[in-house]
Fold these 2 entries.
Entry 1:
Amino acid sequence: MAHPRHEFVRARAGSACEYCRIPAAVYAGPLTTEHIIARRHGGSDRDDNLAFACARCNLHKGPNIAGLDPETGELTRLFNPRIDTWGDHFEWSGHILVGRTPIGRTTARVLAMNEPAIRVVRAALLLEGVFPPIEPS
Ligand SMILES: [Zn+2]
């Protein structure tokens, strides 16, 4: 069953995953409303703790709220779409999602944002000219 705030969360996100930016219109699976800070960690059910996420990002994120920066090994919190700006932490290099900061690198790793299956999808979308999407400002 969809979260009661799903329509609001979807519209706020511009109908694209707030982590890997895949647009709902071209994603093969569902995009869902997820809790940024998982409820088991005390995260609320309010709008400021909800994000629109593709099933792939949501699956890999699970209840994680942090990870180890692949460059430094330091414990680092994950990207929070409600307080962080996507473009500050990530950028595209073709169809590869690159973390620009410890938060970006850690999130890209924990959410497996460059696993082969999604890279193939992005590469195809790039050729079609429908990816990457324009970032909301
Ligand atoms: Zn995603």
Entry 2:
Amino acid sequence: MAEALKSRELLVNRPEMRKSRPELADAHCHIESLSRETLKESIDYGVKVIVANGVDLASNLKTLSMSDGINVFAAVGVHPEYSGTISDDELEKNMRLARDNSSLIVAIGEIGIDKKFATNERVLERQKLVFGRLVELAIELGLPVSVHTRDALADALEILELKGAKRVQLHFFEGDVEQAKHAADMGYMISIPPMESSRRKRVIKAAPMQNLLAETDAPVNNAVPKDVEKSIAMIAAAKGIGFDEAAAALMQNTRRFFNIRMSNLMR
Ligand SMILES: [Zn+2]
């Protein structure tokens, strides 16, 4: 009995040991610097939905070319690392790319505000303006947004609310419990990366399950999409539910939020 319990525990704690793994969804990553082999490895491992974000024109083009609409779904955006200094012409090119491919992409992302990259007030203002215009574009195209913030969650929430954005993923959520509750009240999604912290666990506990997404932000911290397993395990532990149940709920949330239908997965 003790042995049986022990081996069961082993299986629960080490999902990679199981024969049939549940399907996993990575709701935010970047694939342009990953090899196709690495990507395939994660898909074969069980990550059947991968939402890949672009950060500038070259990365948007590469991400689009690597997406297949089966397991890999592209988002087009301008990351705040670049948006603070982007020219009108370059911004227009990115927006045109999103419009021309609006039926292929599942979101406008990655977009947002990042005070680390805002070296002065003018750059910060430009980040905010570009963010607002890309949120408007997402609403116009009927797409959700994948939003990055660093020391700027309150600023981003203000713009999102002002623009009337409804489908919002707060990627790599940096807020506290109160901000998580507010975001959930707005219907926004709180996206959890595979890095544990006590604040993050409190946020997961406080947020309704239907407002959670799991992500890797690969290749940040050398992550690959299959590392989403760690985010899912963290969510399962904080919610006090099994890994499989969490994985299934998060897959459903990811499909619903990005409007990725089952038929896409079976093609
Ligand atoms: Zn990202």
